[in-house]
Amino acid sequence: MKWLRRALILLLLLVVMVVGWLFLRRDHAEPLPRAMRTISDATLKDPALIARGEYLAKAGDCSVCHTMPGGQPYAGGRAVVTPFGEIPSPNITPDNDTGLGRWNFEDFWRALHSGIGRHGELLYPAFSYTAFTKVHPADTLAIFAYLRSLPPVHQTSGRPNLRFPYSVRDILIGWRLLYFREGQYQADAKQSAQWNRGAYLVQGLGHCNECHDARNALGAISSQQLLSGGEIPAQNWYAPDLSTRTNGGLQGWSSKDIVKLLKTGQSAKGVAFGPMAEVVTESTQHLADDDLQAIAVYLQSLPARTMADVPKDVFNHKAQADQGETVYDQQCAGCHGKDGNGVAGIYPPLNANASVTEPSGMNATRIVLLGGFAPGTMGNPRSYSMPPYAQQLGDADVAAVESYIRQAWSNHAPPVQERDVSKYRTTPVD
Amino acid sequence: MNLCATMKVSRSVITRWLPVAVILLLLAARPASAANHTVPAPIPDTLQQRIAACTSCHGDHGQGSADSHFFPRLAGKPASYLARQLQYFQSGQRKYAPMQYIVQPLSPAYMREIADYFSSQQVPYKSSPVPTLPAAVLQRGEQIVTQGDSAAKLPPCQSCHGRQLTGVEPNIPGLVGLPYDYVSSQLGSWRTGTRASTAPDCMAQIANRLSPDDITAVSAWLASQQPASDAHAQAAGSVTPPLRCGVLAAKGDGA
């Protein structure tokens, strides 16, 4: 059924593409303010601008995608895996042949703001210009100045390895018409400056919604509810809903909890893991307290959510429930507590934890199988860890204990099926 | 008037001090009520407690897991060697997905602390099962380990890994007390490039000179040795590596 849906949407895209072709020119990009069209070398070498750019590049988590594991920072080459194939990230050091060496600021602006490459090619939205379009020109300039200040690394990135028809870049004409709204962040006059700063960081450079929202069959975010949670395509992680209000994924989180998690990787309410662990270590732990506070204020304004359907048959059968509780008592309760409340700041609670109760069950399943450390950060350099249970527990035990945890205490999430556990017995490394 | 004023004063005194009195009372009552609850034992603030993700496979003291037939002993291996391996897992130079995933969020300082911990542990060696093989195979293994094979350009393992094969400070690991599956899979990994070290990668060269049968022989002989329980890595500078190795200086010490 999925292929049929994809085929239909593709057909629609083709029609839109033909129509779009008639009136849409490739370089139809929002122009830069006149004063910023030519930037002097002296400006680009301004240490204050470069320092601000370094900070903003951290806020944008640029290095995570643009650095290979063990490679030179920002020299690209890390494969961004999508359901349509792999796209190696480009080298964004100022090397003349393989990086941004020959780029001027206008080129850079067009890429970030409009998703258009230096030679006019449409960029694949694996590069999150759908979010970066909101970044103001002054900030984009600072990031450009910072990248220009890096030591140039001569390293060619491979070409995108995408399946047909996604390999045809012009298919993006239709995609962009449907899903891309170009435009800088417009402040909401009804909200405080702090709220607007938070919204700007979250929606723009932070590109949080790229993971924390559902994507459709063509990899686009089509939900109308910002940051309402979604499965990260091709990665088998679920990025939970970020609302702190009723039925929100972060229900009950104070702004202090949010700031603490972003700063140290861990709060009394939960721990960052999977892709979010990397976001914390490479990006958010480096942000100023003011900015983290602003992000928290913005997230706390997200609306309440409607209650998810509570399944009637919570367990496959009673025996599974008993089995789950037995495994929990033997393996989990020692750290997470019989009451599921964990130990504040050390072991996360499993009760009312969005990563435990998210709809798919994949996060909890993978955590049980993989274990691991809480992110090592300046605020928590010697983090506690959880043993991996992949070797110790069979699929039936994992499914049972997951189903138990997802139904215990105040949790009301659907059970995990044994067949789904084997699906997640892979380890996510590059 | 006067009476009224006095009452007012006393009432305001009461309203002002009542909350204080209540709080004091509650404070006084607190230890008693706390004692009534079963307070869970506090989580020990120790490295061993923090690294449960490591010890669940490698053992509380890094003694390895002989029953698993795979998870290697870490106890007593040189700290620099262990820290370097953690870095290699992080950078993907050494590939084993569960380890790569576990070490990913750790800082260099934390990895060094963990390496120091395991390096300083002293626990008896425990041997794990070795497949039943003809005596000739074990002899071949012993020959390569202790004498090498000049025709195949194989130096003896002992020439780098120490007379007792317990490693050499600071970068050469011990080869004894490790499961057969672990040793043979490492030699295989050196051949396929899923395990690598700083160039020139001498172990990759040696592993490529070993035939598959030799790998079986060497791994089986090593895994069947029972070293002295107090065996430690040899002192730095006590060997002269016959090959140039990126991680070693001329005397097998740090490069």
Which features would summarize this protein structure in a list?
heterodimer; A: 430 residues; mainly alpha; Cytochrome Bc1 Complex, Chain D, domain 2; three-stranded antiparallel sheet; 9 strands; 6% strand; globular; B: 255 residues; disordered N terminus
Question: For the record, what CATH class of the domain at 47-223 in chain B applies?
Answer: Mainly Alpha
* Topology, number of strands of chain B: 0
Structural class by helix and strand composition of chain B: mainly alpha
Helix percent of chain B reads 40-55%
Q: Rg of chain B from C-alpha positions?
A: 30 Å
Q: How many strands, which pairing sense, and closed or not: the largest β-sheet of chain B?
A: none
- What is the quaternary state of this protein? heterodimer
**Domain unit count of chain A:** 3
Number of strands of chain A: 9
Mean pLDDT of chain A: 92
Head-to-tail CA distance between termini of chain B: 95 Å
* Largest protein interface, residues of each chain: A-B, 34 and 29 residues
Ends apart, CA distance between termini of chain A: 30 Å
Residue stretches of chain B low in confidence (pLDDT < 50, at least 5 long) are: 1-9, 26-37
Describe the structure.
- Chain A has helices at 2-23, 41-44, 47-59, 62-65, 105-114, 129-132, 137-149, 171-179, 193-203, 255-264, 275-282, 289-300, 318-336, 354-357, 362-370, 395-407, 418-423; strands spanning 79-82, 85-88, 161-162, 230-232, 237-239, 266-267, 270-271, 372-373, 385-386.
- Chain A is mostly helical and 430 residues long.
- Chain A folds into three domains: 27-179, no CATH class; 193-300, Cytochrome Bc1 Complex, Chain D, domain 2 (Orthogonal Bundle); 318-423, Orthogonal Bundle (Cytochrome Bc1 Complex, Chain D, domain 2), CATH 1.10.760.10.
- The longest helix of chain A is centred in the first third of the chain and has 22 residues, at 2-23.
- The mean pLDDT of chain A is 92.
- Chain B is mainly alpha-helical.
- Chain B has a domain at 47-223: Cytochrome Bc1 Complex, Chain D, domain 2 (Orthogonal Bundle), CATH 1.10.760.10.
- Chain B contains eleven helices and no strands.
- Chain B has helices at 2-36, 47-50, 52-58, 79-91, 97-103, 108-119, 135-146, 158-161, 180-192, 202-209, 212-223.
- In chain B, helix 7 (135-146) crosses helix 11 (212-223).
- Residues 1-9 and 26-37 of chain B have low confidence and may be disordered.
- The chains are: A mainly alpha (430), B mainly alpha (255).
- The interface between A and B is medium-sized, with 34 and 29 residues.
